Amino acid sequence: MTDDAVWSAVIRWIALHAGCTVIRSHEGGRRPAKPYVMVNFTTSREVRENPQRIEWAEDTAEDEVTATPVIETEWQFSIHAYGNTPSDILRPIRSVAHLPQPNEPLMPSLAVHEVSAIRHVPDYINEAWEPRAQMDLFVHGLTRDGVLVDVIEDVSFDIQPASE
């Protein structure tokens, strides 16, 4: 899965359980009416030192070989809630992360691995304190990025007896 596809899947999953508008961070434009949730993709990393396997594909028409390492990957998202009681928006998301059925929209490609504590992080906006809450969400899945590793060359040759 691409980072963008994972980000979109996480936004859709959060929207199912947040009960309010969910947006992607840094979209530009006006802020939605409160309450709302903003999802910020912060990082992705390999879970294990080595890939699970390497998938090989040969394109005989192009005489090329592609190797695709299957890498277990973890994506981290920073989830921010805005509104009068922002922690009440995030608590249901933390709760459903522990139940298999509410996680089915992410499956089988992604699995919620960990949800952090909910942090209260009020911010001073337009000369007033605005209540906000934040938590981190970690999801696991597999990436497959193929790389051309070999070009098969056809070379014709001719064998002739050595002359004496």
Topology:
Layout: H1 3-18, E1 21-24, E2 36-46, E3 53-59, E4 64-82, H2 86-96, E5 110-115, E6 119-120, E7 123-125, E8 128-130, E9 132-144, E10 147-151
Parallel strand pairs: 1-2
Antiparallel strand pairs: 2-4, 3-4, 4-9, 4-10, 5-9, 6-9, 7-8
Task: Name a few traits of the molecule.
164 residues; alpha+beta; 8-stranded mixed β-sheet; two-stranded antiparallel ribbon; 2 helices
3D structure, described in words:
- It is a single chain.
- The chain has 164 residues and is α+β, with helices and mostly antiparallel strands.
- Helices cover 16% and strands 45% of the residues.
- The chain has two helices and ten strands, in the order H-E-E-E-E-H-E-E-E-E-E-E.
- The strands form two sheets. Strands 1, 2, 3, 4, 5, 6, 9 and 10 form an eight-stranded mixed beta sheet that branches. The chain has a two-stranded antiparallel ribbon with strand order 7-8.
- Strand 3 and strand 4 form a beta hairpin.
- The protein is elongated, with a radius of gyration of 24 Å.
- The mean pLDDT is 89.
Shape: elongated
Share of residues in helices? 10-25%
Query: In terms of per-residue confidence, which ranges show pLDDT below 50 for 5 or more consecutive residues?
Result: none
Number of strands: 10
- Which range does the strand content fall in? 35-45%
Mean pLDDT: 89
What class do helices, strands and sheet pairing give? alpha+beta
Distance between the termini: 64 Å
The radius of gyration computed from the alpha-carbon positions, rounded to a whole number of angstroms, is 24 Å
One letter per element, helices H and strands E, the order comes to HEEEEHEEEEEE
Largest sheet: 8 strands, mixed
DSSP summary: helix tally: 2
